[in-house]
Design goal:
Blueprint: E1 4-9, H1 15-29, E2 35-38, H2 47-59, E3 64-69, H3 75-88, E4 92-96, H4 112-123, E5 128-133, H5 144-156, E6 161-166, H6 170-182, E7 189-193, H7 199-209, H8 215-222, H9 228-248, E8 253-257, H10 265-275
Parallel strand pairs: 1-2, 1-8, 2-3, 3-4, 4-5, 5-6, 6-7, 7-8
Helix pairs in contact: 4-5, 9-10
This protein binds flavin-adenine dinucleotide.
Length: 277
């Protein structure tokens, strides 16, 4: 069976960033991905920006999935955005809970399962819905098994498939797939892959989202110090190998966190497609 490949962007804040993103999209689109996705700032902070990039990508004839969460928004606002996407011809959404943005106070976060139910209630089967999954378990989860049960709940509520948080340990993904299967999940779970280009940024980000950098890998990357070229070269070799192990082991495809950069994702995708079209 052919594999599914997708590329994730975040909405740049500046006009120059948006122009550069068009170029990045054109170059990555030449690799014929199944779709692009565009992240959504917690609390709707990137609402217009995300929508702008999504609609522009769609107008270029490219399949695209906006990420979406309730944040602190009213139902009517979220529904209006969903309707705009539907009218424009968007066919996919990545449905999320999101996190509490600092300064927003104690807003109750609406679980992704509730957003999936909301989208299904208002738009039926129009959208292909993706949700998030965590092979190393979400930091707020009460337990490993409960996190899997909550993933099952959002898939049972009508999501079509899941994309994982990034990870660097293939065993965590394969063990997670087995645990999901045992829990009765039979929908595809696509690994999310983060390229390694800058160790200190990656380490900070990983601490926040609960993704583990194995000790040996962090020691190896730390060893390169400020030699970013060597970090990037080793990172590309390691992550390309990780993708091959995942695809070989049965992953249904790969979702690349591009960080809005063409490289190293372009070379990694070429390697993946050459072995697993
Ligand atoms: P949920 O599935 O709602 O789960 C959140 C937590 O609550 C988990 O710990 C879960 O175990 C627990 N839980 C679920 N249901 C219940 C319940 N009924 N009772 C008690 N606990 C429960 N963030 C952004 O801000 N913007 C983005 O664009 C974005 N894109 C992402 C894309 C992917 C592929 C991934 C993996 C993550 C993305 N995130 C994004 C991060 C995500 O928003 C955070 O990880 C967030 O903390 C959880 O979102 P979720 O949709 O997984 O939440």
């Amino acid at each position: 069976m052919s594999k599914r490949y997708s590329f994730e962007f975040f909405p740049p804040k500046t006009e120059a960033g948006r122009d550069k993103l068009k170029q990045t999209r054109t170059e990555l689109n030449a690799l014929d991905p199944d779709f692009f996705s565009v992240t959504y700032g917690a609390g709707g902070s990137t609402r217009d920006n995300t929508r702008g990039i999504v609609l522009e990508t769609l107008a270029a004839g490219i399949d695209v999935a906006p990420h979406l969460s309730f944040g602190g928004d009213e139902e009517a606002e979220v529904l209006s955005l969903i309707e705009q996407y539907r009218e424009a011809g968007v066919r996919r959404i990545v449905a999320l809970r999101g996190d509490i943005p600092s300064g927003m106070g104690a807003t109750r976060l609406i679980y992704a399962r509730e957003l999936v139910e909301f989208i299904r209630k208002h738009t039926g089967d129009h959208f292909e819905l993706e949700v998030a999954a965590y092979p190393e378990i979400h930091p707020d989860a009460p337990s490993y098994d409960q996190d899997i049960q909550f993933l099952k709940d959002k898939l049972d509520a009508g999501a079509n498939s899941a994309i994982t948080q990034y990870f660097f340990n293939a065993d965590a993904y394969f063990y997670f797939l087995d645990a999901c299967e045992k829990a009765g999940i039979d929908k595809p779970i696509y690994p999310g892959i983060m390229p390694i280009t800058n160790y200190s940024n990656l380490a900070r980000f990983s601490r926040n989202c609960g993704a583990e950098i194995p000790r040996w890998l962090s020691r190896k990357l730390e060893g390169y110090g400020s030699d970013l070229e060597s970090v990037a070269a080793f990172g590309e070799e390691y992550v390309t190998e990780l993708c091959q192990i995942l695809l070989e082991g049965g992953a249904p495809g790969i979702h690349f966190y591009t960080m809005n950069q063409v490289q190293p994702v372009e070379r990694m995708m070429e390697a993946c497609k050459a072995s697993h079209p």
